[in-house]
Every structure is written in C-alpha cells, then in structure tokens.
Amino acid sequence: MNAHEARPDTGNRPFDGLAVVELIDDPAGEYTGKLFADLGADVVKVEPPQGAPGRRQGPFIGGQEDPNRSLEFWAYDTSKRSVVADPQNADDVAMVHALCARADLLVVGREESVERFGTSFAELRERNPRLILVAVTPFGLRGPWSGYRTSDLVALAAGGLLNSCGYDDHSIPPIRPGGNQGYQLGAIFAYLGAMLALIERQADGQGQVVDVSIHGANAVSGELANPYWFYPKAIVQRQTCRHAQPVPTQPALFECADGVYVYLALILADQHMWKALVSWMEELGVAADLTDPAYDALEYRQQQFGHIQQMIEVFFMIQDSSTAYDEGQRRGLPIGPLKAFEDLPSDPQLAARGFFTEVPDGEGGTITYPGAPWQFSSFEARPGRAPRLGEHTDEVRTEVAAEAGPRAASA
Q: What is the full DSSP assignment across 23-35?
C-alpha cells in the first residue's frame, strides 16, 4: 500500500508545502480541510479512537457498515492523512501539540476542541505565532448564540435560506435542499477567510484567528431575499423551482413526452425570445393563435399569460426532453432538462471535462468520484482517496519526533 495514495502527485499545486491540522468533526470543517487537501496541502486529520462521526454515517461502500467504507466520510475527507489521538493519552496529547506547533493552519471548532488536549487558542498562538487558527463554528465565537449547536437544517433555517426553498403551495412547510448546503456555505467562507489570512501573513509574518460563523455564511447568501428586504422592505415568497420573489412569477417547468421536465426561463418582455419560441411552435403545428399580431405587444402577452402557459405545456408534451433541449439551445432559448443525480455520470458536458475521476479505494480497486468544479492549466486538481482510520498515526509520530530532535539539540 502506498502511504501517499491520499495525496497524489499532480504537479506543483498552490498549497503544496502548506501544513494543515484538522481538529473538527462537522461537515463544514471537514469540507474546509478537503478544499486545501485536494490542492496540495498536507492536511492531518486528528480523530478520536472511535473515528470521526462521519465514518459511522452511511451509505457504505458495498453496503458493508465499516468506518473505512463510509461514503459520507469519503465525500468530505479526500486527500487527507488520518491520525488517532486520545486526549487521555499523554503521548497523543504531545503529538497534537507538536502538530499545531508546526502547522500553518489549524481548522477547529470551538475552543473546547483544543482544551481537551490541554491547551487553548492563546497558548497555541503563543507557541506558533505564524499559526492561522480557522474556527468554524455554528454561530461564531462571540454573541448570545456562540454556545449553541447546529445542524444543516438549523443553519439553513436560521440563516434565512430555507424560507426561499420549496413549493408554491404555502400550506406546506419549506423544503430543505439536500447535500449539506448550509454546512458547505460555511466551509466556503472559511476557505476564503483562511486564504485571506495567508495573504496577510505574507505581509506581516503573523497568524491570526479567523472566526467563521456558519450562521453568518448562510445569512449573507440569501440571493434575492436580502436586497428585497434591505431596500423595499419586501418579503420574498418561495416558488416551485424558480427564484423566490415578493410577487408570483410564471412557472417555468414543463413536462415532456418522456416524463422528464425541462426548465424554460421565458421572459415575456424579451421580444427575440418570444419570436423564437413561437416560430418553433409554428414549425411543429401547435402555435395556434400565438402567431396573431396582437401578441407582438407585451401588454397583450401578459394579459394572455394563462393561455400562453397552456399552449407551451402542450408543445412540450409532444416531444421528448432531449429533443426539446437540443432544439431550444439551437434557437438560443434558455432551456435545460431537470436531471436527477443518478443522471450526472452520463452527462456529456461533465464527461467532456473529465469531471468524474477514479480514486483508489485503498483495497486495490477504484471508486468513481466527483472531481473539482475548476480546472487549471498548470496543475491537476484531482482528489486522492480518503484515509483509513488512524492510517498515518505512526508515520506522523515519526515525523514530529524527528523534528523535535533537532530542536532539542539546538536548545
């Protein structure tokens, strides 16, 4: 087994040589570490003897419940190294202190995360003045909610995003979008904050505390809800598969003959778009009265919106989604199919960009894994596999012991 499978050699990457310690177990902190690890940073993930909670979260590779086969863990922990550290073990505590003493970044939760290892934020920074301490917490390190816990659902709800998600039928509750989006928003802001701190350190040589609130990250990500409230004091209303607005807008989903829905962002005020759509409908013999010159006037189109909507529904029901998509794109219309997650591995655009990549599974095989959304001309951004629990403990112990030797001799 190659001990460095988790960190593949993909050329000179921007974070090569950056030492990161990850001492946090929620998805926001884990995803922050992953973003650095996949671009070259040496991210050492410190786990308790039983492993991070994500290792116990299914689904599991091959359906076998095992801390080294959790797809949840794989999703957030590619390219990292794993060490096991027990706060009750003096040698483990010393190892964590040594890791933090040499680290560029420490990704952590609240201060209790380091206090259980017998230290504090202030002591860590005193021992390592260049350390950038990235505290990713539910509500920030200060304020009346600073001690509260969170979940992805709480993050989305408290940050305001959930109120914009769901269906036109407001007799049912909002619908939470899946995929830990609340946590991932926190991680993205933590990633940006850490990079800003690294840039600042280039100027003054000093580390700092980056206080990241998952709640705050969600609160500033409300798309149209924030400006509508800040300026006209209007509250947006959620709408099915379209932007939340203070007043209802036209539905944009249409079912095709194959049962797949397409999204058509029809803007009635756009004359070119209207003409292109009617011309297409006319060629298929379903334009009916929409070719009447009266429809050239925007006001008339708005008055007849219900009728237009019905005609478009019939239009899409007589063709399959792939035909509608290809032809609509050819005519310059903003149209696209609603794809399920299981459709994405066969998506031709993702395939052409090599988005899905094969990652070693640590057992001689590979797993098809979603890659990075970005591509770079000078290096490859390809994730390595997620580490097995405690896989690199002995390796890291040897490293910190070797580093401690020269320091002790010089003292």
A: E--SHHHHHHHHH
At 206, list the tokens. Answer: 């000093």
| Cα atoms in the 13 Å half-sphere on the side-chain side of 58 | 7
Residue 237 near residue 246, CB atoms below 8 Å? yes
Q: Secondary structure of the chain: what % helix, strand, coil (to 5)?
A: 40, 15, 45
Q: Are 373 and 383 in contact (CB under 8 A)?
A: no
Return the sign of the alpha-carbon dihedral for residues 274, 275, 279, 282: positive
Cα 360 to Cα 3, 66, 71, 93, 377: the distances in Å are: 12, 17, 13, 31, 24
Which pLDDT score, from 0 to 100, does residue 1 have? 38
Q: How far apart are CA 254 and CA 262, in angstroms?
A: 5
Strand segments, DSSP code E, in 178-329 are 209-213, 237-239, 242-245, 253-255, 261-264
pLDDT tens-digit series, residues 269-307: 899 999 999 999 999 999 999 999 999 999 999 999 889
Nearest to 70 by CA among 27, 115, 126: 27
Pairing of strands 261-264, 335-337: antiparallel
Could you tell me the two tokens for 369?
A: 């894994």
Residue in the block written with tokens 């990850």: 22
What is the Cα–Cα distance from 386 to 77, expressed in whole angstroms? 5
- What is the C-alpha separation between 182 and 153, in angstroms, rounded? 7
How is residue 387 annotated by DSSP? P
Q: Give the contacts of 168 (CB within 8 A, at least 6 positions apart).
A: 238, 239, 240, 248, 251
Per residue in 123-150, pLDDT (tens digit) is 999 999 999 999 999 999 999 999 999 9
Question: pTM for the whole thing?
Answer: 0.88
Q: Which two tokens stand for residue 21?
A: 């310690």
Give the separation between CA 321 and CA 165, rounded to whole angstroms.
25
Contact between residue 254 and residue 313 where contact means Cβ atoms under 8 Å apart: yes
Which amino acid would we find at residue 40?
G
| Dihedral angle sign, alpha carbons of residues 57, 62, 68, 73 | negative
Which tokens hold the place of 253? 């989903």
